[in-house]
Amino acid sequence: MIKIGRPLPPKSNTNPRPSKRRKTTPIHPSHEPHHPSTSPSLTPVVNDIPSSSSPPPSPSKPAKSPKPAPQTFTEVDSLRKQAEPYRLAVAELPIHLLDFSWSRGSNRPLDRNHVAHLCRSFQNGGLARRAEQHYIQVSCSAAAVQKMIINALPDTNQSHIQDRRQYVLSFRNWADFIDERPELMAGQHRIEALKDYVKQTHSDSSDLWWICEFYDKDTLPVELDIKLRVNRRDLTLPDTHGQIWLQLVSAFDRDPTLFSVERNVNKKGIEKSMLDILCLTSEARFPISRLVTLWRSERWRPRVTRWCRTSLGRTTFNISKWYQIAGYRLGRCE
User: If 0-12 CB within 10 Å is exposed, 13-18 middle and 19+ buried, where does residue 118 land?
Assistant: First the structure.
């Protein structure tokens, strides 16, 4: 039996097992030297307590993520205002002179249900083709438009021609002077609906015209050209994810730097650029981050592109679903 009143001599801590019974008699630090040990000690040791010169360590906390930069007030001009420097003229044009095929990329497929919806709207008094918001956009050479302006306004000098770009002219006799066919950038459903409306009302073929905004095909920047072709103003016919993907492909084919890190700094910059160029800034729930991740994947971008080039793919492609399918292989793209 060990007597409690008698202090025991210090033992070297060679046995990793702690003693079964704790000491009840406190030992003054001046009488008991501290022996370093590799095993945890059960009694407090003075030398293990930090000195008063250094503050006690605070419990470790997970590092807080940096706060996002506060949003700044931003105001941009309308698309029509942005494209104004490249607008050559605004004029009435017979619709049979328009070229529906695109020289760059491919136009969205015609939706006959939407055409029928627009035709019913025209029948109910909704044919407002003289309103600015219903103008259609076309592209052609500046030389062709300038020649038409001179023929439409023979007594006008060059300075007045510049001022007349904001007025609605008449290019009804375009075919008499110009062989070039203006390329229809946006508005094919309205044109098809007008054809049906004229046919149903037994109207004269002279009513087959629309007011067009003519843009210079040689100087119009790629970003504005894509925005005009995307035509997000018509919210009654939203694009599918497959059509949006093909719009990205078309933009990339024309300028491979549009969605590059070198041009946009980081992934957030690419997201902002895509939203702006594809006119998706008003789509609050659009999965732009997942779209960028898929786009930046060298493995999945060609696969998605091949799928979306099919009619079934354009209809069924869903960004979030494909992101989930490809998720385990996309870690290096984030």
Answer: buried
289: exposed, middle or buried (C-beta count within 10 Å: 0-12, 13-18, 19+)? middle
pLDDT of 72 reads 57
Q: Do 289 and 253 contact (CB within 8 A), yes or no?
A: no
Same domain, 134 and 277: no
Residue 265 and residue 223 in one domain: no
Same domain, 304 and 253: yes
The model's pLDDT over 175-190, given as tens digits with 9 standing for 90+, comes to 999 999 999 998 899 9
Closest CA to 186 of 221, 230, 155: 230
In this predicted structure, the answer to whether residue 7 has a pLDDT above a threshold of 60 is: no
Q: Which long-range contacts (CB under 8 A, 24 or more apart) does 201-206 make?
A: 201/123
Centroid of chain to Cα 69: 20
Q: Give the integer Cα–Cα distance in Å for 323 and 334.
A: 12
Domain end point (choices 201, 233, 265): 233
Do 86 and 192 fall within a single domain?
yes
**CA-to-CA separations, 263 to 251, 260, 267, 287, in angstroms, rounded:** 14, 5, 11, 22
Tell me, yes or no, whether 159 and 251 share the same domain: no
Assigned domain for 56 exists: no
Question: What are the pLDDT digits (tens) for 108-153?
Answer: 788 898 899 899 989 888 788 998 888 999 999 999 999 999 888 7
Angle, vertex CA 178, rays to CA 174 and CA 180, nearest 5: 105
- In this prediction, residue 76 has a pLDDT band, given cuts at 50, 70 and 90, of low
Range of the domain at 123: 77-233
